[in-house]
Specification:
It contains 15 helices and no strands. It has helices at about 1-15, 20-40, 60-65, 70-100, 105-120, 125-135, 140-145, 155, 160-185, 190-195, 200-210, 215-230, 235-240, 250-260, 265-290.
């Protein structure tokens, strides 16, 4: 009896053995750097000009909330996220997925290839392409000139809208693929029954399709939001956060403080606050997902 009890006690411990190496590597190469970054956020570490590093407690966080440029970056980050992710990518991706279900095969193939091509481009390459599109002597103003419409320097007058459009252009493919899969799982009999009952296309979309794919909507919104909060290369290539600070989102502000101004401690504290913003969005979406179960 004791031998059987001993064998049963060893069972749970032995089940951990196969994943022990992977767990150790995660703790070493992921948990270690994260813990070190948390430590740095509570210090006055600098890249240059400081011979030693001191623990400063919450000074970096108090400095951030008293910094008008940080508060401006928070507002611009929320505007950029809402415009380009929650409204732009999500809505356009759903619209494209719905339209492509009714389109012919050649149209679906061509549209899918164009949208996905923008998605697979490296972020920095997409940034330079959209810079050439919105620049004062760029493609957009050439098109407006041919139509005899007024042109302007879009990257100067409407920088946050320009980078938001660029992020929509680049990231819509992901939403389109998610919603294409979700729409494909809806039984055809349900939509046909709604059509027989006299429901219009908009009514079928609002009362049948959207309720049936709401879990996919919440999942897509969570993934898109987290990705958009971390966008750096696209904005840096197009505006570098300018003019002034009019398109300086939190990732750009963090880079400016940590590497251009050499304030590693302060910049890392801003990074932790950005992580907190992402965690808050995730909690909201996860709560929505739990309510759907």
């Amino acid at each position: 009896m004791s031998a059987l009890t001993t064998a049963r006690g060893r069972g749970p411990r032995l089940r951990w053995l196969p994943i022990a190496p992977a767990t150790l590597l995660l703790l070493l190469f992921l948990g270690g750097p994260i813990a070190y970054c948390v430590y740095i956020a509570f210090t006055d570490m600098q890249l240059t000009g400081a011979s030693s590093t001191h623990f400063v407690g919450f000074d970096n966080f108090r400095r951030a909330f008293a910094d008008d440029k940080f508060l401006n970056a928070v507002v611009l980050t929320l505007v950029f996220t809402v415009l380009s992710s929650i409204v732009g990518q999500n809505t356009l991706g759903l619209g494209l997925a719905a339209l492509m279900r009714r389109a012919s095969r050649p149209v679906r193939t061509l549209t899918g290839a164009i949208v996905i091509a923008a998605w697979v481009l490296p972020e920095i390459v997409a940034g330079f392409l959209l810079y050439a599109f919105f620049e004062r002597r760029g493609t957009l103003n050439d098109i407006l000139g041919l139509l005899h419409l007024p042109s302007q320097n879009w990257l100067f007058t409407l920088p946050i809208l320009a980078v938001s459009f660029a992020n929509v252009w680049r990231g819509t493919a992901f939403s389109m693929l998610v919603y294409s899969a979700a729409l494909g799982d809806i039984p055809q009999e349900i939509t046909e029954a709604a059509e027989v009952d006299g429901a219009s296309g908009w009514q079928r979309m609002w009362r049948v399709t959207l309720p049936m794919i709401r879990r996919s909507i919440a999942t897509n919104l969570m993934l898109n939001t987290l990705q958009t909060l971390s966008v750096f290369g696209l904005i840096w290539a197009m505006t570098r956060g300018g003019p002034g600070t009019r398109s300086q989102t939190l990732p750009v502000f963090m880079y400016d403080q940590a590497f251009l101004k050499a304030l590693i401690g302060y910049g890392t504290a801003v990074a932790l606050l950005l992580l907190l913003v992402g965690a808050l969005f995730s909690l909201v979406y996860l709560r929505l997902l739990r309510e759907e179960v």
